[in-house]
Amino acid sequence: MSEFSSLALGIDVGGTKIAAGLVSFPSARVQFRRQISTRPERGGAAILDDVVTLATELLKEAVLPSAHLAGLGIGLCELVSPQGQILSANCLHWQDQPVRERLGSLAPVTLEADVRAAARAEACFGAGRPFRSFLYITVGTGIASCLVLDGTPYVGARGATGTMGSSPFNLPCDPCGHVNRQTLEELASGPALVARFNRLRPGAAESGQEVLAAAAAGDRAARSVVQSAGQALQGAVGLLVNVLDPEAVIIGGGLGLAEGPFGDEFRAGSRRQIWSDVHRDLPILQAETGADAGLIAAAYSAVR
Fold first, then answer.
1. Ramachandran class of 146: left when φ > 0, alpha when ψ lies in -120 to 50, beta otherwise
2. C-alpha–C-alpha distance, residues 95 and 110, integer Å
3. What angle, rounded to 10 degrees, do the helices at 190-200 and 208-216 form?
4. Is the separation of the CB atoms in 75 and 140 below 8 Å?
5. pTM (predicted TM-score)
6. What does each C-alpha distance from 177 to 78, 167, 187, 232 come to in angstroms?
7. Tell me: the pLDDT tens digits for 209-257?
8. How far apart, in whole angstroms, are the C-alpha atoms of residue 125 and residue 122?
9. Cα torsion at 9, 12, 17, 19 (round to 10°)?
10. Is 252 helix (H, G, I), strand (E, B) or coil?
């Protein structure tokens, strides 16, 4: 089988950026790549216009007739049903948008939840290859998870799996009676780190990476924010491992792949949250598909 036996266009539509690339399989090599900001506050129609323009321009740049494409895959930061129906509008308001109709003239369109697409890519091309079962977790603009069994992401009955960071904790404080109704994403995602740090140091950071850098440099406020975020993540990962008993945990996403104290403490702390000695020493690995994981995963969803 040649490197170019299959070509697909992958588009990763996230809350911060839209990344698109032409990917060759079975090597999963990105041939051409472009990226723009999402700016979700503009609404779903404007974002769809950008995606159509991005895909069209990328194909022109590659001088590739659409007839040569195996398909066009889109990974979305939303819930997607087993039939490819968009089920939520938490960040991307596309439920009422003609996504397939607008993009279908370029190639057959496949829609998939970004976390499931990324988990499948890790199973086929990344750190998940040695394992029959693993838990994939992404920490970035959002926080989500996916259980992979025999190389296949678990979809669930309705396609609503993976929302590990979206439900409130609802933890009452015994001394004062206050109930913490924050979600994991409001504590530990990239935007949460920025918002929490800026409340303590107004205007000090614009990205989660800047908060991590400030913490590594010794800023006490940043360290407090990062430490509490890591503790919340540790508890969530430990709970999932306790319930699912996977062979391994694979961490992806911009913050999940961050080097330094945050990542080291997060991995070590997650082990402390695992109840049983039987699986406390399971591998906790970084995703291997790298910065292009989202678009590679989206493209692969179109050629499977």
1. beta
2. 15
3. 60
4. no
5. 0.89
6. 34, 20, 20, 20
7. 999 999 989 999 999 999 889 888 998 999 999 999 999 999 998 888 8
8. 5
9. -20
10. strand
Helix (H) or strand (E) holding 63: none
Residue 3 has pLDDT above 60, yes or no: no
If we measure between CA atoms, which residue out of 187, 196, 253, 185 comes closest to residue 222?
196
Residue type, 188: A
Q: How far is CA 278 from CA 133, 226, 274, in A?
A: 16, 29, 9
Name the amino acid, one letter, at 126: G
**CB-CB neighbours of 82 under 10 Å:** 10
What is the C-alpha to C-alpha distance for residues 94 and 235, in angstroms, rounded to an integer?
A: 33
**Domains recognised in the chain with CATH numbers:** 6-120+292-303 (3.30.420.40), 130-287 (3.30.420.40)
3-state secondary structure of 134: strand
Across residues 140-157, what is the average pLDDT? 93
Cα(284)–Cα(291) distance, rounded to whole angstroms? 19
Which candidate, 234, 141, 236, 226, places its Cα nearest to that of 189? 141
Is the pLDDT at 269 greater than 70? The verdict is yes
Beta pairing partners, 145: 137
